[in-house]
Each structure stands twice: as C-alpha cells, then as structure tokens.
Design goal:
14 helices
C-alpha cells in the first residue's frame, strides 16, 4: 500500500469513554485527568470523555459512574494544551440540554450515535451541535447489519443534517477488511468531498488494526481507537499498535509513538480490572455480531442463571439485539435457563 505514504489521518482516543465499559463505569476524575494529560502531551488530537453510554448514561440500565459527565469533562478540558475533548450522545438517551451542559464544561466535539438504520433520529442533535460550533460526527453503530448501499444513504442523511464527518462503526468487531472497504467506498461515492469519513473498530476478531488500515486505504481520514485497547469487548483498535503500523506504512498521525506506548504500559494496564483481550467470550461477540458492550452484562447473567456467557451471546446475535437492549440480556439468559431446567424457584 505504497499509495498511503504521506497520507494524514486524525486519531480519536476512546479509552476514557469506551473504556468505561471495561471498568464498569468506575474511572475516577483523577484517573481521567492523568490519562488525558498524558495523551495530550503525546499529541493525541481528540479525546472522548463521558460515561460509557455517553451523555445521559448514568442510569440503572447502564450503570452509575463515579462522577457526572460534566465533572469529568470540565476536569479534563481545563487541563488540555492542544487536545479537543469530545463526547458521545445517543438521541433518546442524551438530550440537547445535556449537550449544552457538556459544551459549557469544555467539550468541543460530539459523536451523535444512532443504530445504522436510524439516522433519522439524529437531525435535531446534529443541527444543535453545529449551532454550538462543535465538530459534529454522525456515528452509525452496528454498521455490519446494513449493506454498503443502505449505509451510504443513512450517512447522506447525517450529512444533510449538518454532520461534518460520518463514522462507520463496527460496534461488534464483526467486519472483515473487505466489509470495511465496501462501506467506506460506498460512503465516499455519495458524500461531499469535504465531508470526512471515520471508522470505529473493535478488536473482537483481532482485526482492529487491519480494518482501520482498510478504512484509511478506502478514503477514511478519522480513526477511533483506544490506547492499550481499553474498551468494550476485546477493546477498541489498540492505538499504540495502530500508530506503529502507520509509521511503518508512512501514514502520518502526528501522535508520538513511544509516549503512547508508555501510556499503555504505565498508566492504562495498571488501571484494568481484567486484561482486555480476545478471549472465548469477546471472540464470540465478533463471531456472532453482538454489540461489544454486552460482554460484561452477559457474564453477569451467566453467573446469575448458570448459562455460559458464550451461549447467551450467540443467542443475542441470533436475535440481532442492538445497543440499548441491555435489559434483554437478563431476560434471554433467564429464558435459556428455564429451557435447560436450571432456573431455581427463587427467580
């Protein structure tokens, strides 16, 4: 891929938002600041900071963080020398009022996220983010569930609402490089030249790096990832590895490789409650096309009902469950336990 030499891309670190899933939302303000200031010093241009489920995420369904989104954002944004603080917003969970609060706290970029077939739930939030002057990206989750042509039409909608970037989001870590190439190419064919394309990968099939490179080769200019891969499932594309691959290929990220490696080993790994890696359960997420955030929910359901997490995840994949249906994980596990004669009367 010699044609990629000299290509400039923008990296967006997710370890303080997607990483909240792997930490059961338990990252302190002090830890947020420590990680973010180190990333800022390494030259990371965008750092996402919120509850794992984004603005409005603090809830019984998604878990309660140690602080409010505003507290996290303000603490981090006030310390940034060059990095832009971003947030995640899912219409229906996060509100425009919460987006305004995030902006007031220092956020200047937002991923407005919808299911890959539901871009039409996002016009108000995208338009309001642009009105605030924010870098505004449409974020099409579970993109593997939509064919390239249909996905491109959803991206076109987000562009028409005002998004300056549209992301193909492999929430399940299901895609193969050819799947990414097809979807990025389809978006590039219909979007305006000035509208950027992003890719957000998960490492459940071990393809976070190759899929991100495929995205860049097909025309994506923004890549999400996470230092040390801290994120849902087997984690996001590990950025220190991705940066190293980019340097070998001549792709310019503007981020210091060695500093990023040090952050991974010296700050992020000691924070992990469990090593974020490809194991039998996270691999099942990718294989079955299941939303990565479901991993720890499925493990908790497995402990409660005695049904292996892998079996639960395969069933969730068969049912094509999507983000926001976390409550159905317990229901699915309970039904499976009944069918297997495992359910105790106390349930």
């Amino acid at each position: 891929m010699s044609h990629l030499k000299g290509r400039k891309i923008i990296l967006h670190d997710m370890c303080l938002r997607d990483g909240m899933h792997a930490k059961r939302e338990q990252i302190s303000v002090e830890q947020m600041v420590k990680v973010a200031t180190a990333l800022d010093d390494a030259g990371m241009p965008y750092i996402q900071v919120t509850h794992g489920a984004g603005l409005g995420g603090n809830s019984l369904q998604h878990g309660f963080a140690l602080a409010s989104n505003e507290a996290y954002i303000e603490a981090v944004a006030s310390r940034m020398k060059q990095a832009i603080v971003s947030v995640l917003l899912l219409p229906g969970l996060g509100t425009m009022k919460e987006l305004k609060s995030a902006y007031s706290a220092g956020a200047r970029s937002v991923h407005v996220a919808t299911h890959c077939t539901e871009a039409d739930t996002s016009p108000q939030h995208i338009a309001y983010a642009r009105e605030l002057g924010m870098d505004t990206t449409g974020f099409l989750m579970m993109s593997h569930l939509s064919d390239a042509t249909s996905l491109a039409q959803e991206a076109k909608k987000m562009e028409s609402y005002g998004a300056n970037t549209v992301y193909i989001t492999d929430s399940a870590g299901f895609m193969l490089p050819e799947d990414v190439t097809q979807r990025v190419t389809a978006l590039r064919d219909v979007l305006k030249p000035e509208t950027e394309i992003g890719f957000h990968g998960h490492h459940n099939m071990g393809l976070g790096i190759s899929n991100s490179i495929a995205a860049v080769a097909a025309g994506a200019s923004r890549i999400d990832g996470s230092v040390a891969g801290l994120g849902a499932g087997a984690g996001n594309t590990p950025l220190e590895v991705f940066i190293a691959v980019c340097e070998r290929m001549g792709i310019e990220t503007g981020v210091d490789l060695f500093k990023t490696m040090d952050i991974a080993d010296e700050i992020i790994f000691p924070m992990m409650d469990h090593i974020v890696r490809v194991d039998k359960d996270s691999l099942t997420l990718g294989y079955a096309g299941v939303y990565s955030t479901f991993l720890l929910h499925a493990k908790r359901a497995a402990e409660r009902f005695g049904v292996p997490a892998r079996d639960i995840l395969v069933e969730l994949g068969r049912k094509k469950m999507i983000g926001g249906q976390e409550d159905m994980i317990q229901d699915t596990a309970m039904t499976m336990a009944k069918q297997r004669g495992l359910l105790k009367e106390s349930f």
